[in-house]
Amino acid sequence: MNQYTAKRKKIEDAIETFFQTIDTSAYAKLPRTIQEKHLLELKNPCMSLVSQGGKRWRPLLLVLCAEIFLNKEQEKNRDTQTKTSAEERREKAYAISPLVELIHTASLIHDDIEDASDTRRGLAACHISYGLDTALNAGSWLYFAALNAIETSLSTKAEDAALAYRLLNYSLTDIRRLHLGQAMDIAWHKESALIPSSLEYEAMIALKTGSLARLSAIIGASIGGASEKEALSLGELAMQIGIGFQIIDDYTNLTIGNPGKKRGDDIVEGKKSYPILLHLEKKPEDLAKIAEYFQNARVEGIDSPSVEKCIAIINTSDALKEAKEKGEALILDSCNKIVYLYDNNEAAKEIQQLFFEMLLS
After folding, report:
1. pTM for the full model?
2. Whole-number Å distance between alpha carbons of 162 and 167
3. Which run of H or of E encompasses 188?
4. Which helix (H) or strand (E) holds 61?
5. What's the rounded Cα separation, in Å, for the pair 112 and 124?
6. Rounded Cα–Cα distance for residues 6 and 130 (Å)
7. Which of 42, 84, 119, 198 is most exposed, with the fewest beta carbons within 10 Å of its own?
8. 59: domain range?
9. What share of the chain is helix, strand, coil (3-state, %, to 5)?
């Protein structure tokens, strides 16, 4: 059995529990005519997308980051009281882990609307299944509802209350960062002739994809007992993993295609992904032709001949190879640093193994 199977099962259970326990009592005083069936208009679209799967690497990263510091504490203090405290905090990490997965889910619902994507994970996108109005509202709700995981996972003790306040601030900061990154991405793919530099693109995905990896590490480390400085430091390394993950995703889109999607759908959506930007920095004379293919693909859809023609142009340089190497280096270097910084801590090695396996899959 994969070493992460049991952890993923506990995360899935925590997500299921989250949706089961969030009810109208979370809304202070409501009119008596409001019933649970009204809340289902928000919950059902979100639960549907979550149930379609996903790698769950963000909540898993959160749990493993908590375990890094719990392991350190247990090594220093081997008494029964320390062991009991560590187990309690480990359970809190699992209970709060839906937070990052559900923020990610909310962003996917909005991404698919903004990109005019019809599918997600091989099935109809949320706005196709439930309607644009319902999906937009449910996705917006989920950003806020996800924060309930902080309140329900931590006690009312003064120590936990202070931690909850910190985690809420971190979460709101990274949600804002995520939306700023998305704003940059939308601006670039709305204008076919607008080409950012590869460095601008890296900054965008640091906000859009890196932020949730950062948040996962910060929350996990904080629950595990890390100082604020330690949590933020680990968060920066995790952000680099998130950047690498997105670059690998860009590479996959233009090679074998992402799971549940057709190869080159980024071209249809007008996304200037990392390999395309690297190619244009090497061969700027290809800009007019690539812009033409983007425009054709937007009008004609995923089966447009322009999709494969555009990919063929990218293949005339080593941009795809460079992108893959860049993404892998960011992930592996960050994981190696985590292992080094935490003295071969077992949880740090599990983080390294997790992302190594993801790169091979």
Report:
1. 0.93
2. 9
3. helix 158-190
4. helix 57-76
5. 10
6. 33
7. 84
8. 5-360
9. 75, 0, 20
